[in-house]
Structures are given as C-alpha cells and as structure tokens.
Automatic annotation (TrEMBL):
The keyword DNA damage belongs to this UniProt entry's keyword annotation: no
Protein name: Beta-phosphoglucomutase
GO MF annotation list: beta-phosphoglucomutase activity
Keywords: Isomerase
InterPro entries assigned to the protein according to its UniProt record, in alphabetical order: HAD-like_sf, HAD_2, PGP-like_dom2
Any Pfam family: HAD_2
Entry keyword Isomerase: yes
Listed EC numbers: 5.4.2.6
Length: 78
C-alpha cells in the first residue's frame, strides 16, 4: 500500500484526553482514601506523572507513601 499522508495528534488537538487523565487520577486517589478535585487536577496540567502523583499524595497528607515508593524523578524504586 502506498501511504500518502499520516495524522499526527498532539494531545488535545484531535482528541482531548484531559477528562480521562482526571478520571484515572481520581480513581487512584480514591483507592488511597484521598479526595481529588477538578481544581487540583487543573494544577497538574503540564506536570510529569511522577510529580503529579507526588502532589496528589501530598494533598492527601500521605507523604510516607511518596518517600517509600519514589526515589527522585526516575520513577518507582525497583
């Protein structure tokens, strides 16, 4: 097949996934007993996943999990 074009989508151009990110973070937060609001979600725009999780844990007053699960910006400990 001769390809003549392709579609390149930056998040939000063709498909807006922001609501799905919110739902995923909200479910994770709820599983940890943390109330996660739309206002808090707005503060996570442009923030890495690791730092987003850290902020959610901090908002929930759960700094112990942050220290145990993460070792800096490189993600979960092995």
């Amino acid at each position: 097949m001769n390809k003549k074009a392709f579609i390149f989508d930056l998040d939000g151009v063709i498909v807006d996934t922001a609501k799905f990110h919110f739902i995923a973070w909200q479910r994770l937060a709820a599983s940890l007993g943390i109330n996660f609001t739309h206002e808090e979600n707005e503060q996570l725009k442009g923030v890495s996943r690791v730092n987003s999780l850290k902020k959610i844990l901090e908002w929930g007053g759960n700094k112990t999990i942050t220290a145990e699960v993460f070792s800096g910006e490189n993600g979960p400990k092995e």
